Amino acid sequence: MRSMTRWFLAASFMSNLLLAEGAPTPAPTGPGREGVTPFLPLILIFGVFYFLILRPQQKRQKDQQRFIAELKKGDMVVTQSGIIGTVKTVGDKFVNLEIDQGVSLKILKSQILESAASLKDDKNSSQKEATT
Question: Are residues 58 and 80 in the same domain?
Answer without folding.
Answer: no
